[in-house]
Amino acid sequence: MKRLIALGICLIVGIEVLALILQDRRYVLVASGLALALVLLNVRRVLGHRNEPAAEPDHDDLGDGLRRWLSKTETTIRWSESSRADWDRHLRPMLARRFEIASGQRRAKDPAAFSTTGEMLFGAELWEWVNPNNVTRAGGHQPGPGRAALEEILQRLEQV
Q: Any stretches that span the bilayer, and where are they (predicted)?
């Protein structure tokens, strides 16, 4: 809105300067009036659309969002039930980020407080699966903790 008014003022001033440069002062008032009318019509158009209710999302858009969420959830569950390498690659970073956000503890700021808070919240057994510093390179074929551990971790994160 501010940009529209600023551009309108620049348009009016520009037209007046152009008319004065051309030495034909008969059209200064007419040209400025037309520029002002153009600016006012645009301001009215912009203000008129603010009062209209927002268009409701298309039912297909809602269905697409639900399908994406369902697909992402199914993929997350599959990762939890597969190998430790998948857990370390996909779930551990997500869970560590959610833990940082939920607890307010930043790993980069104070690693000791981050680990202590994690152990207090999850317990030693579950913290092993959330701790971002517990990634192993060699244990890729070991089984992950499974869906029950993921569910328990998410429940504890919700309680924070």
A: 29-47
Return contacts of 68-76, CB within 8 angstroms, 24+ apart: 76/150
Mutual angle of helices 111-130 and 147-159, in 10-degree steps? 140
Please write the tens of the pLDDT for every residue from 82-129: 888 888 888 989 999 999 988 888 888 888 888 999 999 999 999 999
Q: Scanning the structure block, which residue is given the tokens 């300067």? A: 17
- 55 pLDDT tier (thresholds 50, 70, 90): low
Q: For residue 76, which of 151, 140, 158 has the smallest C-alpha distance?
A: 151
Question: In DSSP terms, which residues pair with 83 in a beta bridge?
Answer: 143
CA 91, CA 126: separation in Å to the nearest integer? 13
pTM: 0.57
